[in-house]
């Protein structure tokens, strides 16, 4: 460090760094430093922020110094990829020598995903116990740099990072987003683009809704017509599509490179028209229905009393589990209006052990709590504030008995709900969900009677009845996705709309720089363009 400090002083263009180093805490900052983003203007809000000291200025001599491990190098390479196009700097990733930005793996109170970021005139150091923590720290560093850092052409700078320390660990281990690729198919590239956007806000689960009435989207060797026939259309009658196993693995790999785990969902026993249409034998009457391109729900069911149904489930779960390195497999279970309660319970009693047999933990929509959730299963709650007390109590009771909860209340964080009456896309069955409404609730106290420790986190679903491409996805997800991320990451003590709307407003220019066409919600003080 000393060495580094002396040699940078020789470079005229770096006078600011030298001056900042000499001035230290308390002295008036150099003029340009006034433009550094305040250390607490971050979404999701960090657990603790201690501003102070000199800013760091990124220059053409900055190195990204990493520990000599493959994982740390990877995070370093990712950071370099983010910073090089806009700064125009070389930013070599090195394991020794001088480094303005340092990524350090070390023991400490960071947990699996937390980090500390220290910034002063000499550099920025991100310390974490695990690579995911370094990665999340890098997302914080991005937000501390000017929004123009997100552009893909060289920008003028200066590239200042305010001085001080951030200590940060997530409130919840499950911070998810769900993408429905069944109602409208989204390509591998479209899914990867969304993954990159989720990573900006430290989300760590991508739940892929891979099957529904309108489309089966994953290749299964034992039942090839699921994809070739069941995947051949979508809402509105377009060509649909499906992921080959290689496609799916590419998504999983890309997600892993952004420290997200893919949670695949095969929705059963309802929402299965695409499968029923692909194989007549799966139907109780032995007759395959036509493909479906409308948006009704609740009209299809697997045939619970036919043995072939469980051969089918065994095959599809086995093949999907084998492609999925993550712990979880989501079996749906919502809106099974064409399955009797008795059949629903029978079905879940038979299917949950199959998921366990292939090494996965069951996740289901909260209707699963009306059957007997397997030990360790998670239930995803998608009710509303107005959902009846009995239904809420059933979920709360399951939570008291050990079922973990993922909170996705539809009238709060369903990203497919319209913001207001003028929103051109989306649905409104759960009401309009404006930005404040989607942010202003506490997952820890949301479901009456559920023990706070049963809450594993939050997830923002995006159903795609009206969503056809990335522009649509982004308009509905941004800005509400950022609020969901904050509810999942930030301590309850940081929660507050007045502070949030200011931090959120600062994201607008970043989304502009990234080409994300977001909804400029009137309740947020976006900077003029
Ligand atoms: C309800 S939420 C559904 C989906 C629809 C969504 C539209 C849930 C588990 N099921 O089938 O796509 O509403 O908002």
TrEMBL record:
- Which UniProt key words apply to this protein? Glycosidase, Hydrolase, Signal
Q: Which residues form the active site?
A: 335 (proton donor)
Catalysed reaction equations from the record = Hydrolysis of terminal non-reducing N-acetyl-D-hexosamine residues in N-acetyl-beta-D-hexosaminides
Question: Which is a GO BP term held by this UniProt record?
Answer: carbohydrate metabolic process
Q: Report domain Beta-hexosaminidase bacterial type N-terminal positions.
A: 41-168
Record GO cellular component, one term = membrane
Family annotation (Gene3D superfamilies):
Chitobiase/beta-hexosaminidase domain 2-like, Glycosidases
Annotated signal sequence range: 1-27
The reply on keyword Hydrolase is: yes
Q: Which InterPro entries match?
A: Beta_hexosaminidase_sua/sub, GH, Glyco_hydro_20_cat, Hex-like_dom2, HEX_bac_N
According to its UniProt record, the EC number is: 3.2.1.52
Q: Which CDD domains match?
A: GH20_SpHex_like
Glycoside hydrolase family 20 catalytic domain boundaries: 172-491
Give the GO molecular function terms. Answer: beta-N-acetylhexosaminidase activity
Q: What class of enzyme is it?
A: hydrolase
SUPFAM superfamilies (alphabetical): (Trans)glycosidases, beta-N-acetylhexosaminidase-like domain
Similarity section: Belongs to the glycosyl hydrolase 20 family.
This chain's protein is named beta-N-acetylhexosaminidase
Q: What organism does the record attribute this protein to?
A: Streptomyces resistomycificus
């Amino acid at each position: 460090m000393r060495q580094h400090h002396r040699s940078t002083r020789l470079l005229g263009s770096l006078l600011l760094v030298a001056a900042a180093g000499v001035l230290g805490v308390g002295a008036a900052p150099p003029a340009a430093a006034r433009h550094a983003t305040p250390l607490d203007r971050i979404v999701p809000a960090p657990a603790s922020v201690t501003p102070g000291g000199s800013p760091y200025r990124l220059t053409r001599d900055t190195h990204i110094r990493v520990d000599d491990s493959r994982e740390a190098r990877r995070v370093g390479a990712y950071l370099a990829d983010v910073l090089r196009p806009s700064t125009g700097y070389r930013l070599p990733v090195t394991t020794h020598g001088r480094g303005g930005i340092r990524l350090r793996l070390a023991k400490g109170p960071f947990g699996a995903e937390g980090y500390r970021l220290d910034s002063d005139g000499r550099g920025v150091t991100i310390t974490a116990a695990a690579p995911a923590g370094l990665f999340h720290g890098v997302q914080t560093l991005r937000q501390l740099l000017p929004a123009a850092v997100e552009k893909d052409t060289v920008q003028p700078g200066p590239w200042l990072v305010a001085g001080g320390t951030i200590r940060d660990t997530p409130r919840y281990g499950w911070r998810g987003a769900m993408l429905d690729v069944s109602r409208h198919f989204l390509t591998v590239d479209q899914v990867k683009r969304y993954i990159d956007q989720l990573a900006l806000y430290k989300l760590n689960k991508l739940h892929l809704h891979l099957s529904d009435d309108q489309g089966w989207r994953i290749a299964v060797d034992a039942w090839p017509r699921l994809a070739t026939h069941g995947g051949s259309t979508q809402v509105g009658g377009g060509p649909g599509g499906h992921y080959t196993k290689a496609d799916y693995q590419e998504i999983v790999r890309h997600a892993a490179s952004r420290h997200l785990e893919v949670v695949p969902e095969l929705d059963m026993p309802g929402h299965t028209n695409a499968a029923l249409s692909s194989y007549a034998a799966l139907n109780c009457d032995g007759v395959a229905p036509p493909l479906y391109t409308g948006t009704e729900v609740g009209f299809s069911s697997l045939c619970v009393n036919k043995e072939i149904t469980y051969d089918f489930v065994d095959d599809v779960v086995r093949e999907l589990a084998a492609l999925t390195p993550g712990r979880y497999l989501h079996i749906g279970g919502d809106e099974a209006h064409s399955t009797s309660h008795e059949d629903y319970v029978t079905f879940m009693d038979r299917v949950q052990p199959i998921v366990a047999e292939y090494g996965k933990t069951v996740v289901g929509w909260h209707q699963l709590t009306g059957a007997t959730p397997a030990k360790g299963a998670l239930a995803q709650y998608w009710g509303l504030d107005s959902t009846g007390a009995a239904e809420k109590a059933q979920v709360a009771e399951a939570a008291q008995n050990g079922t973990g909860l993922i909170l996705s209340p539809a009238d709060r964080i369903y990203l497919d709900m319209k913001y207001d009456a003028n929103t051109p896309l989306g649905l409104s069955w759960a009401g309009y969900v404006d930005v404040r409404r989607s942010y202003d609730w506490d997952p820890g106290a949301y479901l009456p009677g559920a023990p706070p420790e049963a809450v594993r986190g939050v997830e923002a679903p995006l159903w795609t009845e009206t969503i056809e491409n990335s522009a649509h996805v982004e308009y509905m997800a941004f800005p509400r996705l950022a609020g969901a991320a904050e509810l999942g990451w930030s301590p309850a003590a940081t929660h507050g709309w007045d502070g949030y709307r200011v931090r959120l407003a600062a994201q607008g220019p970043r989304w502009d720089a990234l080409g994300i066409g977001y909804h400029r919600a009137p309740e947020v003080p976006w900077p003029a363009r």
